[in-house]
């Protein structure tokens, strides 16, 4: 409703005014031209841009995990530098400090899921070609990003030239409000050609500011344009994320656009961390391809709608899943729209899963779709055989 838009706009203006007032006071007290910011409000891209462009400071740094998770970084620095009195030697240069996974662990996860895959010689070029062809690509590489933004290692990528990509991604992949916008990742050296940037900041690398799209460019990238002509951007540096940079360079060669649409690799859940989580999220969304390390999984040809629980899942995880099915109507409805089977490898859980079958069956009948099937698959081979039989 219009009043909701008015409330949101009013809250944003008040936030801008309060932060600017605090910044002016801080500048008057210190006369410093540099500012470092953290805290949940420091993830507000509109306020960040307003302060950076119109505030009294020349240089702005906002660390990428500016919300509560950043307290872990602050605690570590405090102990190392203040308590233990070590010299301040570490320089934060990139956010890709989370878990990474070997080819062996990736192949193991693919095998447990019974997924068919192709090993690629050039994952970046393959991804760029798929995106340019209108495909939605889940991109999983290297160390996970530290912070709430997907910065090219746990991302879902799409073509920014396509206007309908916004509603399509929101409806079938992210399962969220239709109007929610998406970010643009741009080659760092091309950022000024596509966006009005009067003052540079390293925080643009962390997707923390909104920048106005240049008038002559806005019609070329409607998939990442906000209603006010801005876009939340991430500048991609070749030295910091070589793989993602190469993907975007290949996309530019094919399309003339040095930008890809970038959204977090998740579906109303935390960003995926492990290969197993990546597969589970892909199975319940309409992504076309997953490129994980050097491996390509084509969900367009081989997608099977199944929620699978391996022997590595705890009983409490399975019970939690069932609890959501029984108590969360929206989750249950979404599950019935997107899933046809639950594959169970735990004998003790078989009876527990079957207990909610009748409830799901009723919902399925109303939707005109067949019943969710509960299948006991004691090992990876059984899972694979079952999936092949359903294709």
Topology:
Elements: H1 2-30, E1 34-37, H2 45-54, E2 59-62, H3 71-83, H4 103-113, E3 118-119, H5 123-132, E4 137-140, E5 154-158, H6 165-174, E6 183-187, H7 191-194, E7 195-196, E8 209-213, E9 230-236, H8 242-255, E10 259-264, H9 275-283, E11 289-292, E12 295-298, H10 299-302, E13 306-309, H11 315-327, H12 329-338, E14 341-344, H13 347-354, H14 357-367, E15 373-376, H15 380-390
Parallel strand pairs: 1-2, 4-11, 6-9, 13-14, 14-15
Antiparallel strand pairs: 3-12, 4-5, 5-10, 6-10, 7-8, 8-9, 11-12
Question: Summed up, what is this model?
Answer:
With 391 residues, the protein is of the alpha/beta class.
Protein model, in words:
43% of the residues lie in helices and 16% in strands. With 391 residues, the chain is an alpha/beta fold. The strands form 3 sheets. It has a 10-stranded mixed beta sheet, sandwiched between helices. It has a 3-stranded parallel beta sheet with strand order 13-14-15, covered by helices on one side. A two-stranded parallel sheet has the order 1-2. Helix 5 (123-132) packs across helix 8 (242-255), helix 11 crosses helix 12 and helix 12 (329-338) crosses helix 14. The chain is globular and about 60 Å long.
> Numbering strands along the chain, what is their spatial order in the largest sheet?
3-12-11-4-5-10-6-9-8-7
Global shape: globular
Q: Which consecutive residue ranges, at least 5 long each, have pLDDT under 50?
A: 301-316, 366-372, 386-391
How far apart lie the N and C ends? 43 Å
Residues in β-strands, percent: 15-25%
Total beta strand runs: 15
Q: Summarize the helix and strand pattern as letters.
A: HEHEHHEHEEHEHEEEHEHEEHEHHEHHEH
Mean of pLDDT: 83
């Amino acid at each position: 409703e219009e009043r909701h838009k008015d409330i949101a706009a009013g809250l944003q203006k008040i936030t801008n005014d309060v932060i600017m007032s605090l910044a002016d006071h801080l500048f008057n007290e210190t006369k410093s031209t540099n500012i470092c910011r953290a805290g949940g409000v420091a993830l507000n891209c509109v306020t960040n841009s307003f302060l950076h462009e119109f505030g009294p400071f020349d240089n702005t740094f906002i660390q990428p995990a500016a919300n509560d998770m950043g307290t872990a970084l602050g605690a570590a620095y405090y102990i190392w530098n203040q308590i233990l009195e070590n010299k301040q030697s570490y320089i934060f240069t990139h956010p890709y400090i989370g878990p990474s996974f070997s080819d062996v662990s990736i192949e193991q996860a693919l095998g447990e899921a019974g997924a068919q895959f192709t090993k690629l010689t050039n994952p970046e070029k393959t991804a760029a070609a798929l995106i340019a062809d209108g495909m939605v690509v889940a991109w999983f590489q290297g160390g996970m990003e530290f912070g709430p933004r997907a910065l090219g290692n746990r991302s879902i990528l799409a073509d920014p030239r396509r206007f309908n990509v916004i509603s399509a991604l929101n409806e079938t992949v992210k399962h969220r409000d239709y109007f929610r916008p998406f970010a643009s990742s741009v080659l760092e050296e091309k950022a000024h050609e596509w966006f009005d940037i009067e003052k540079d900041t390293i925080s643009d690398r962390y997707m923390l500011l909104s920048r106005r799209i240049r008038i002559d460019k806005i019609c070329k990238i409607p998939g990442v344009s906000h209603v006010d002509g801005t876009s939340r951007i991430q500048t991609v540096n070749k030295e910091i994320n070589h793989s993602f940079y190469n993907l975007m360079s290949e996309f530019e060669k094919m399309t003339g656009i040095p930008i890809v649409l970038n959204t977090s690799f998740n579906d109303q859940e935390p960003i995926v961390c492990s290969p197993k989580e990546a597969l589970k999220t892909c199975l319940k969304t309409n992504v076309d391809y997953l490129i994980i390390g050097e491996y390509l999984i084509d969900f367009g040809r081989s997608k099977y709608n199944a929620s699978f629980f391996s022997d590595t899942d705890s009983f409490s995880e399975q019970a939690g899943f069932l609890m959501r099915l029984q108590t969360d109507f929206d989750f249950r409805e979404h599950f019935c729209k997107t899933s046809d089977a639950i594959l169970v490898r735990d004998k003790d859980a078989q009876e527990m899963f079957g207990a909610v079958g009748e409830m799901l069956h009723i919902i399925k009948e109303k939707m005109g779709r067949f019943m969710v099937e509960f299948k006991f698959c004691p090992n990876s081979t059984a899972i694979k055989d079952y999936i092949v039989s359903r294709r």
